[in-house]
Design a protein that fits this description.
- By secondary structure, this protein is an alpha+beta fold.
- The chain contains 2 helices and 4 strands, in the order αβββαβ.
- It folds into 2 domains: about 70 residues; about 45 residues, no CATH class.
- Strands 3-1-2-4 form a 4-stranded mixed beta sheet.
- β1 and β2 form a beta hairpin.
- The chain binds zinc ion.
- The site of zinc ion has 6 residues, from loops.
């Protein structure tokens, strides 16, 4: 009878150990699955970010080019005058030198009040 009780006790302990190991394995499996899911989401988000960046860059690049072009159109100066003009301005009858608007401003030329370039 004494031996049987001892065996029962060992069996109970073994059962508890097995259950504990099983539970631990189950919990760690859930955690690793969640981690894997989180990593997958992160990878997807990174891929989307990488995919989106060139689009934004392209848009801003085009926008920048457009802004640059509208900022510095070609204007016309004369040999003698201190103003810059649009190509059709009547003041350009004597001489007509094409120059970027930004360059003309940088060289001290002012906008013609007649054609307002
Ligand atoms: Zn003018």
């Amino acid at each position: 009878m004494k031996n049987t009780k001892k065996i029962n006790k060992i069996m109970v302990i073994l059962l508890i150990v097995i259950l504990t190991i099983g539970l631990a394995a189950y919990i760690s499996n859930i955690i690793s699955t969640q981690t894997a899911k989180a990593e997958t989401n992160e990878v997807i988000q990174k891929n989307e970010a990488v995919y989106n960046v060139p689009d934004d860059d392209e848009d801003s690049y085009i926008h920048q080019v457009e802004t640059e072009a509208s900022k510095s159109p070609t204007v016309y100066i004369t040999n003698t005058g201190s103003k810059y003009h649009r190509s059709y301005c009547q003041y350009l009858s004597k001489s007509k030198i094409d120059i970027l608007k930004s360059d003309a401003i940088m060289k001290g030329y002012g906008a013609c009040s007649k054609c307002s370039p």
